[in-house]
Amino acid sequence: xxxxxxxxxxxxxxxxxxxxxxxxxxxxxxxxxxxxxxxxxxxxxxxxxxxxxxxxxxxxxxxxxxxxxxxxxxxxxxxxxxxxxxxxxxxxxxxxxxxxxxxxxxxxxxxxxxxxxxxxxxxxxxxxxxxxxxxxxxxxxxxxxxxxxxxxxxxxxxxxxxx
Amino acid sequence: xxxxxxxxxxxxxxxxxxxxxxxxxxxxxxxxxxxxxxxxxxxxxxxxxxxxxxxxxxxxxxxxxxxxxxxxxxxxxxxxxxxxxxxxxxxxxxxxxxxxxxxxxxxxxxxxxxxxxxxxxxxxxxxxxxxxxxxxxxxxxxxxxxxxxxxxxxxxxxxxxxxxxxxxxxxxxxxxxxxxxxxxxxxxxxxxxxxxxxxxxxxxxxxxxxxxxxxxxxxxxxxxxxxxxxxxxxxxxxxxxxxxxxxxxxxxxxxxxxxxxxxxxxxxxxxxxxxxxxxxxxxxxxxxxxxxxxxxxxxxxxxxxxxxxxxxxxxxxxxxxxxxxxxxxxxxxxxxxxxxxxxxxxxxxxxxxxxxxxxxxxxxxxxxxxxxxxxxxxxxxxxxxxxxxxxxxxxxxxxxxxxxxxxxxxxxxxxxxxxxxxxxxxxxxxxxxxxxxxxxxxxxxxxxxxxxxxxxxxxxxxxxxxxxxxxxxxxxxxxxxxxxxxxxxxxxxxxxxxxxxxxxxxxxxxxxxxxxxxxxxxxxxxxxxxxxxxxxxxxxxxxxxxxxxxxxxxxxxxxxxxxxxxxxxxxxxxxxxxxxxxxxxxxxxxxxxxxxxxxxxxxxxxxxxxxxxxxxxxxxxxxxxxxxxxxxxxxxxxxxxxxxxxxxxxxxxxxxxxxxxxxxxxxxxxxxxxxxxxxxxxxxxxxxxxxxxxxxxxxxxxxxxxxxxxxxxxxxxxxxxxxxxxxxxxxxxxxxxxxxxxxxxxxxxxxxxxxxxxxxxxxxxxxxxxxxxxxxxx
Lengths: 163, 778
Description:
heterodimer; A: 163 residues; alpha+beta; Ubiquitin-like (UB roll); DNA polymerase, domain 1; 2 domains; 5-stranded mixed β-sheet; 5 strands; globular; B: 778 residues; Aldehyde Oxidoreductase, domain 4; 31 strands
C-alpha cells in the first residue's frame, strides 16, 4: 500500500461464508468479489467484465443470486454468502457440479461457477423447473463456449437427480 | 504419408467428460488471474487518447517519482517489433513515435497496487500532434490519404489476385448470372475470461517465467525472447487454465510483452489484468468485410463461375491480416465443384484496433455471401436450395484448383441428414405467416498443413512417460482452452494402448516439460496432435509387448494384448497384467519417455502460387444446417425457433465433445448473424462492454439438434477431422435465407438487427408503393 494517500476506512465484517462464520477487516469501498478472491482466497468466483455484465461473479447472498462484482462486501454484514467452493461437501460433487461435468455444461469453465450458483438458486425455490424457467434464471449469465444447450441439459439432469 | 486408416477404436465408444472437468465445476481450476500473485506488482497501461498522431512529448518523470511506483516503461524500452507472421511484424508493444489507433499502448506502470498504478497513469504527460484518421476501408484507400505505414501505399496491407480456371468461359456457359454485395460487421471473440498475464523475471538467473492466457505458448515464447532480448532457453511459458479463445489469443498480444517488460524492469513479478473495455481494444477478431460476389449457374443449378472481391478493414497493424485475406479467397474452394474462380482481396489499414483470427478464420464472410447469393439464384430458377447444393458436390478424393487436398467429403450425407431431421420437404413454405426455413453449407480446415514458422520440425510431437507406478503421463504443448484437447490426447493414447482412460495423465503447455506445439489454432490439435499421440502410444505399446515377450519367454509377435492383459498366443496359459509388464519394461532402463510425431507431407501443403499455403489442410470438415425462424414484421425481431446442424468430423473420437463444439460454433455464428458488432465513434469503441456488445443470452438461444456424420478420413486420427469451426459459417446465411423464406426480404448486411430488418421492410414498402404508382400512371 502506497503511503501518503488517504486510505478508505476499514471496518470489521462478520459474515457466514460457505457455512462458517468469519471476521475480516475490509475497506468500506471493497467489493464482495475482491473480498472473496483476495481476502478469503476463494478464486472460484470470477471477474469477466467491468461490472454487472456477464454473471461470472454470481454468488448467493442469503440464498439469492447476486453479482459480487457490484456488491459491496460490507453489505453482507451478518449475512450468509455461498460460493462455488461451498457446494462441494467433503470432496463430493454437488448434483449441479456432477451434472455440469458429465453433460459437458462446462467447456472452458470460466462462466461455470457463476452459472452453477444461479442454477442452484433456481433449484432451491423451483426443484423441477421447465426449460423456460431455466432460461429465465440463467439469462444473466453469459457463456461463450456451449451455445447453452448442454447447460440447460445439465440443470435439467441435476433437477432430476436426488439431491 | 503416415496414414492411420488402419487404427480403429477398440474400446467401447463412450461420451467422455473432460478430464479436467471436475476442476472447472468445483472452482478449483486456476486461470491466470487466480494464480498466486503474492508479492506481485500491479501493471497498468497508458493508452493513446487519439486515433492517429505523432508523439511529440512523453514525460514519465512524475509518474516514476510517485511513491509506490516501481517502474514505468515506454516504447523506448523496446525497439523491437512483434507479430504473428515473420514477414509482417510492424507493431511495437508500446508505440514509438507514432500512434495509429485510439487505445494503443504508449507506456505502462508497475506499482504496489492498482490504485497507485492508476494514479501514476494520470501523471504521464503525453503530447500528440494529431494526423488524419480513417475508420472505413474506403476512406483509408482514398487518393491522398495519409499512410499509416510508409511502406504500404494506398494503406493496403495486402492485395490478392487469384484466377483459377477459365472465368469468361464459365460465365458464358451460365444460364443465370447474378451479383450481390454484402457487408459484414466487425465482430469480437468476447471470450469470457478477460486478458491477464503474470510475469516473473529473476535478475539473478536472468530467467523469465510467464503465465498467460495464450492459445499458442510457442509464439509467446518467441516474441518475448525477441522483444526482451532474452535467450529463448531462459524463458518458461506455463499455461494455466485458459478460456476459449476462439482465436483471441493466437497472436501474441501487446499486454503480454508489456507485462514481461515491466517484470524485467522491476526485477520481479508483475500481474496485469485488462478490463473488459481494454479487451475490446486488444481484440484481433473478425474484420468488417465488404464482399462483392458474382456467380454463374446453369438452369439445373450447376455452378459455372465465381468472381469474388473481399475488402477487409484490418485495423492499424498487420497482425494475421495476410492470412485472413488469403483464407477468404482460398476457402471459396473445397466445398463445391466450381470450374472457374476469380478472387480479389484487399486488406486495408485503418485507425482502429488491429483485427486477427477468429473462429472460421477468414472464411465466414465470403461463405455467407456465397450461400446467400446461391440461394437467391436457386429461387429465381425455381430450384430447391438442397437440390442446388447437391448438383455441385465434389467427389473425394480430389484436389481443388488451388491445390487443396480433399480426402474425405461427407457433405452429401450432411445434406440428407438435416433435410430429413428438419422435415424440410414437408414443412418449407407451409409454416404460416412470418415463419420460414433456410439452409446453408460450410467447411473448414483441420489444421493448417503449413505452419507459419517453417523450422523443419514435425507438425506435432507428443511424449509419453511410463514410470515405476504404471502410470502413463502424456506430455503435450497443445493448449487446452476448453475445447477438450487434453481429453482427446488421453483418449487417443488409451485407445491405442488398450488401457483404461484413468491410467493416463496429461500435462499440457509447460515449455520446460512439454514438447513444443504449434498451438491451438486452425482446428489443428485433434488432427495433428491426435495423430502424434497415437504414434507415441504405438511406440510405447511395441516396447511393452517386447517386455511382455521377454518376461513370458515368447516371441513378441506371439504376444496378444487385450485391455490391460498381455498373454501368449491363444493358449492363454500365461498372462501378465499391465503393471507387471510396465515393471518388466523398466528393468535395466528405468523410467521411459517415448515419442510420437505427426507431419503433414509436402503434397498436403497447398499450391505453388503466391499465398497457396493458406487453406491447405489434411482434412476438411463439412457441415450443412437448417434454421427455422419466426419474424415479427411489426418489430423487426427475429426469433430462431430451431437449428439442425450436421457436421462431418470424420470420426467422433468423443461424441460428447464433438456435439459441444458444434453447438458452440453454430451459436457463435448466430451471434454474428443476429446481434454482435463493434462500431467505433471517432475511433472510440462504442461496444466495449458485454452489455453493448450483444452476445446472445440463454433466453435468445434456440434448441440445436446436432447430427454427426462420420466419413472416416484416411489420414485423421481414428479417421477424425475437426469439429470446432466448420459449422459456424453456415449459420448466418441459413438465417438470412430463412428470413427471405419467411417474409420475402433479402438482407445484405450482418448482423440482422431489428433496426436493419425494419429498414429493409420500410424500403420494401416504398418500392411497392413506387411500383403501384408507376402502374397507376401507366
